[in-house]
Q: What sequence folds into this?
């Protein structure tokens, strides 16, 4: 117990907690919404995409943070782009060779990880100014908070649109499937409700 | 001036390193990705002919039973019964429609159909890829061609029921199959 309390007091853990819960990438910073809408239709896709974004963010943060002293200031965005693209293409090729079914399910959205504002945002706001070790914590916190939101949205969308949870059928024949949840409008509804609930809870807790 | 040169040099070196890393990884995985695509195609062709391929025996099964041929300059396959397997490519409501059709040697009767990829409305148009719907195509005859039935139930040998609420998708599939088979019949 004492060891756990000591961990909780460290800067790293406080940072992780802040990124994972309070300054949630999607609900608070409102970043990475496009891919969140597209890929959250089933839980399998959500988890794969979440893991992809987390891994790419961690690797990019380590790279950028190690190079932060030599990146020329006026070319820093280009640098982030090159590094992020390299890791995403790497991830895409890896999926295509070893997990072709998942690659087919995610389709073009793996390439869209490059455009995910969360990764670029974390490089600019954190990794380019802090040491590699703490940048890893920041990357993990943001990546996992993105994954968390994706999983919650995917849970509701998959259940309402297909009647399944993670591919397992959990409803009987009488269940009226809501097909719009599988498409973009459904994603908008669920995401908006999620952000609304998140902000309400945040508002109530700061009022205390 | 020197500062600008240093900055540009940095970007050039970074891009070169990134390219080298990706090219080397690509050469390592290229063979595996090609093998994956081959596997999916061969597996689909075999399953269309009612075989049950597994990861171990699909290649042997394919070599024994399927032969690649060209009909009027189009790639096709012929199985040990003499039936043809054609690939059809068309356009559905939202995107491309791709599949395989098992055609009798008389080039008029459809034995089996499967869909490789489709982009129709999930839950409604996507039902054209369901085995239950595709079973309607079995043993239909193109005399002179397939017809879609929207207002009445299909009775003749060349008639297919449409899916309620997915007339466009059902019709797109039917037209694609008609055109593909007619193009090889000549």
A:
């Amino acid at each position: 117990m004492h060891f756990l309390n000591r961990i909780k007091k460290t800067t790293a853990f406080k940072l992780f907690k802040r990124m994972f819960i309070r300054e949630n990438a999607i609900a608070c910073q409102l970043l990475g919404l496009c891919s969140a809408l597209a890929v959250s239709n089933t839980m399998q896709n959500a988890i794969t995409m979440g893991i992809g974004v987390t891994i790419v963010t961690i690797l990019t943060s380590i790279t950028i943070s190690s190079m932060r002293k030599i990146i020329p200031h006026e070319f820093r965005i280009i640098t982030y782009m090159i590094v992020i693209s390299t890791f995403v293409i790497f991830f895409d090729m890896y999926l295509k060779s070893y997990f072709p079914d998942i690659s087919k399910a995610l389709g073009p959205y793996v390439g869209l990880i490059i455009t995910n504002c969360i990764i670029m945002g974390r490089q600019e706001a954190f990794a380019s100014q802090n040491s590699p070790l703490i940048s890893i914590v920041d990357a993990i916190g943001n990546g996992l908070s993105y994954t968390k939101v994706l999983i919650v949205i995917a849970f509701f969308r998959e259940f309402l649109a297909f009647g399944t949870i993670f591919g397992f059928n959990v409803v009987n024949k009488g269940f009226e499937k809501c097909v719009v949840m599988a498409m973009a409008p459904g994603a908008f509804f669920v995401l908006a409700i999620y952000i609304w609930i998140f902000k309400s809870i945040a508002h109530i807790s700061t009022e205390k | 001036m020197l500062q600008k040169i240093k900055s540009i040099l940095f970007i050039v070196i970074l891009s070169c390193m990134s390219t080298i890393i990706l090219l080397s990884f690509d050469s390592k995985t290229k063979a595996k990705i090609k093998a994956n695509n081959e596997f999916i195609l061969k597996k689909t062709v075999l399953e269309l002919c009612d075989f049950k391929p597994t990861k171990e025996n699909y290649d042997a099964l394919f070599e024994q039973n399927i032969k690649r041929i060209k009909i009027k300059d189009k790639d096709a396959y012929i199985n040990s019964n003499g039936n043809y397997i054609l690939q059809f490519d068309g356009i559905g409501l939202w995107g491309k429609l791709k599949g395989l059709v098992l055609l009798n040697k008389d080039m008029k009767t459809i034995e089996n159909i499967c869909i490789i990829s489709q982009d129709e409305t999930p839950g409604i148009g996507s039902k054209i890829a369901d085995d239950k719907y595709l079973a309607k195509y079995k043993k239909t005859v193109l005399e002179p061609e397939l017809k879609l039935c929207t207002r009445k139930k299909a009775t003749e040998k060349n008639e297919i029921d449409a899916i309620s609420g997915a007339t466009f998708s059902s019709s797109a599939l039917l037209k694609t199959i008609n055109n593909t088979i007619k193009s090889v019949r000549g």
Q: What stands out?
A: The longest strand of chain A covers residues 164-165. The beta strands of chain A are 164-165, 168-169.
